[in-house]
Specification:
Shape: globular
Number of strands: 7
Strand order of the largest sheet: 6-5-4-1-7
Helix content: 10-25%
Distance between the termini: 8 Å
Bound molecules: zinc ion
Number of domains: 1
Radius of gyration: 12 Å
CATH topology: N-terminal domain of TfIIb
CATH class: Mainly Beta
Largest sheet: 5 strands, antiparallel
CATH architecture: Single Sheet
Oligomer: single chain
Strand content: 35-45%
Number of helices: 1
Structural class: alpha+beta
Length: about 90
Protein backbone atom coordinates (compact mmCIF):
# COMPACT_ATOMS: atom_id res chain seq x y z
CA UNK A 1 0.00 0.00 0.00
CA UNK A 2 1.30 3.39 -1.01
CA UNK A 3 0.63 6.21 1.40
CA UNK A 4 1.54 9.86 1.19
CA UNK A 5 2.11 11.28 4.64
CA UNK A 6 3.44 14.49 6.06
CA UNK A 7 5.80 14.48 8.98
CA UNK A 8 7.30 17.40 10.88
CA UNK A 9 11.00 16.79 11.12
CA UNK A 10 13.63 18.16 13.49
CA UNK A 11 16.25 20.49 11.97
CA UNK A 12 18.15 18.62 9.27
CA UNK A 13 21.85 19.07 8.70
CA UNK A 14 24.07 18.00 5.86
CA UNK A 15 27.82 18.57 6.08
CA UNK A 16 27.26 20.91 9.03
CA UNK A 17 24.84 23.10 7.11
CA UNK A 18 21.20 23.38 8.08
CA UNK A 19 18.74 22.48 5.38
CA UNK A 20 16.53 25.52 4.95
CA UNK A 21 13.69 26.75 2.80
CA UNK A 22 15.23 28.33 -0.34
CA UNK A 23 12.61 31.08 -0.25
CA UNK A 24 12.27 32.19 3.38
CA UNK A 25 15.14 30.38 5.11
CA UNK A 26 13.09 28.46 7.66
CA UNK A 27 15.20 25.58 8.93
CA UNK A 28 13.21 24.07 11.78
CA UNK A 29 9.88 22.28 11.95
CA UNK A 30 9.96 21.68 8.21
CA UNK A 31 7.41 19.25 6.88
CA UNK A 32 8.68 16.24 5.00
CA UNK A 33 6.30 14.85 2.40
CA UNK A 34 6.73 11.13 2.32
CA UNK A 35 5.76 8.38 -0.06
CA UNK A 36 5.77 5.27 2.11
CA UNK A 37 7.00 3.03 -0.71
CA UNK A 38 9.60 5.33 -2.22
CA UNK A 39 13.04 4.21 -1.02
CA UNK A 40 14.85 5.89 -3.90
CA UNK A 41 17.66 8.45 -3.86
CA UNK A 42 15.41 11.00 -5.56
CA UNK A 43 15.22 14.42 -3.89
CA UNK A 44 12.56 14.45 -1.19
CA UNK A 45 9.83 17.09 -1.05
CA UNK A 46 9.94 19.49 1.86
CA UNK A 47 7.59 22.28 2.84
CA UNK A 48 7.91 25.18 5.26
CA UNK A 49 5.22 26.89 7.34
CA UNK A 50 4.68 29.46 4.57
CA UNK A 51 3.73 26.67 2.16
CA UNK A 52 6.87 26.96 0.07
CA UNK A 53 7.55 23.51 -1.31
CA UNK A 54 10.75 22.30 -2.88
CA UNK A 55 12.70 19.17 -3.79
CA UNK A 56 15.71 18.85 -1.51
CA UNK A 57 18.53 16.87 -3.16
CA UNK A 58 20.40 16.54 0.16
CA UNK A 59 17.49 14.53 1.57
CA UNK A 60 16.79 11.33 -0.37
CA UNK A 61 13.22 10.01 -0.34
CA UNK A 62 14.42 6.81 1.29
CA UNK A 63 15.02 8.78 4.53
CA UNK A 64 11.36 9.72 4.68
CA UNK A 65 10.15 6.23 3.93
CA UNK A 66 12.42 4.81 6.64
CA UNK A 67 11.35 7.50 9.10
CA UNK A 68 7.71 6.81 8.38
CA UNK A 69 8.16 3.06 8.87
CA UNK A 70 9.77 3.63 12.26
CA UNK A 71 7.18 6.18 13.37
CA UNK A 72 4.29 4.01 12.21
CA UNK A 73 5.65 1.22 14.36
CA UNK A 74 6.59 3.18 17.47
CA UNK A 75 4.63 6.43 17.54
CA UNK A 76 1.73 6.30 15.09
CA UNK A 77 0.08 9.09 17.09
CA UNK A 78 2.76 11.51 15.85
CA UNK A 79 1.92 11.03 12.19
CA UNK A 80 -0.53 13.40 10.58
CA UNK A 81 -2.65 11.05 8.53
CA UNK A 82 -5.21 13.71 7.72
CA UNK A 83 -3.18 14.73 4.67
CA UNK A 84 -2.52 11.17 3.69
CA UNK A 85 -4.05 9.73 0.61
CA UNK A 86 -3.91 6.27 -0.83
CA UNK A 87 -2.61 6.01 -4.36
ZN1 LIG B 1 9.61 29.08 3.07
Amino acid sequence: MNVIAELQVPPLFKDGQAIACPVCGQDDDLTLIIDSQDFSETAALLRCDDAHQWAEPRVPRRIGAELLAIRARERPDLIDWSEAQRL
